Amino acid sequence: MDFYLTALLQGLCFSALALGIYISMKIFNIPDITTDGSYTLGAVVTAVLIKQNEPTYLTLISVMVAGALAGALTGIIHTKLKINALLAGILVMTALYSVNISLMGTSNLPLINLPTLFTLVNISADLNHNTFWILSLFVIIITIIIGFLLKTDFGVAMRATGNSESMIRSLGVNTDRMKIIGLALANALTAVSGYLISQFQGFTDISMGIGVVIIGLGSVIIAETLINWFKITSIWLSLVLVLTGAVIFQIVLAVTLDIGVNPNLLKVVTAAFVLLIVSLPRLSFKKG
Amino acid sequence: MIDIKKVHKIFNQDKPNQVNAVSGIDLNIKTEEFLVIVGANGSGKTTLLDMVAGSVFPNSGTISIDGQDVTKLPDYDRSKWIARVFQNPLSGTASDLSILDNFRLASIRTRKKGLSIGINDTFKNQVKEKISTLGMGLENKIEQPMGTLSGGQRQALTLLMSVMDSCKVLLLDEPTAALDPRSADIVMRTAEELIKDYRLTSILITHNLKDAFNYGNRIILMGEGKIVKDLDAQQKSTLKQTDLYDWFG
Known about the structure:
Chain A is mainly α. Chain A has a single domain, classed as ABC transporter involved in vitamin B12 uptake, BtuC (Orthogonal Bundle). The longest helix of chain A is centred in the middle third of the chain and has 27 residues. Chain A is globular and about 55 Å long. Chain B is of the alpha/beta class. Chain B has one domain: Rossmann fold, CATH 3.40.50.300. In chain B, 33% of the residues lie in helices and 24% in strands. Chain B contains 9 helices and 10 strands. In chain B, helix 5 packs parallel to helix 6. At the A-B interface, helix 5, helix 6 and helix 7 of A face strand 6, helix 2 and helix 3 of B.
């Protein structure tokens, strides 16, 4: 059972990343690959600051600023230099590898026996339960902030930017600026996932971000399938489904390991699972 | 209201596919004038309109609106004067957003999109009331995504959206080109009513010579990036519909 609790906790850690991908991919319609780099960046900044005994809130703010800068850079390259978003993301992601390893000074930084977000308060004696409550609260707060943001006039303009650029420009919105802000926000959230995971697993590794974008994509695609299935238009419900998607994704991976699939094959299973989810709506459309 | 002086626009300059879209146009559009522009494909109508809107910048010449030089101002900075209806209904509305969200954005066209929630019951009622004037029964569907509506409904709503916030200039770029005759008629009549009620200065581009004949109080014919004919209200009133067809003969 503990095995599945861990999967649930990981899912919660990744929900910030899933929200980030939801913003870049679904709201702005931009495939953003900066994720792999900004996620690791978040984890690296966390490890470095925790090592220096900086308070958690300061670490969190620094992580978000670092992620936002990475995202904004991708946004600037994409909008101002008119470079394909995918390539812009890959460029920033590649460069971030050097930034990350320079910041850490080593390829792996353990955080054993150091105070983290999860030792901040003691709600339950059981470490995992304690982590669960703190994480849940954390994720709820983030979701409420994002949900509120998307409901504001600024948020509606954000949603329109990815939907009909000509319309929103004629209504007085600088779409380049909006995209830069959107990518900054998305990558700030991604970095927060790095912040959570590194404290949860107790270390930061330079290669922890490899392929992490698929976790976000998978979560969002699961959510999107459900959103289309039930014809959901509510923002709040959509965000909750994105969180659910992140958790489902981790649980599926846990099940895969639990039934004895070779861990080396995990990435194949991940890819196959995402493919299945993506093709599911198409398969069922054919029947209808 | 709109003053266009010696405007030139060349696409792909000095390349084999160079196009002289607009070649030296001088045009002064007075306040509350309803200008109709006709002309063959490639005559520069849309480029001219895009330059007024700010989505295309001229190579030379100046454009001013309401006495202010806007030549270098991008489209999103001209929205304080200009509202626009596009040829493609998809361009003027956001499909995935609800009718209400679309109207909210339109209602703050000239203002900053801030971090407060602007959609409340008062606003909903205001939108419902406005939409009910169309008589399309859409006032009960304001929570629906815009994408569920037909092209005609969307164009009619885009027109209404343009007067949700203060508006001085209305640009209509073949607003009925993608519509069936009945919807086209509703859209054009809605446009004319709004232009009268809100005393807008407007430019209509159309290939429909019946519309060109019926609407507006000034008409120009464009050809090869220049103004070929320019008829004021009085001259237009004596114009016969067959004369218009002869222009294209």
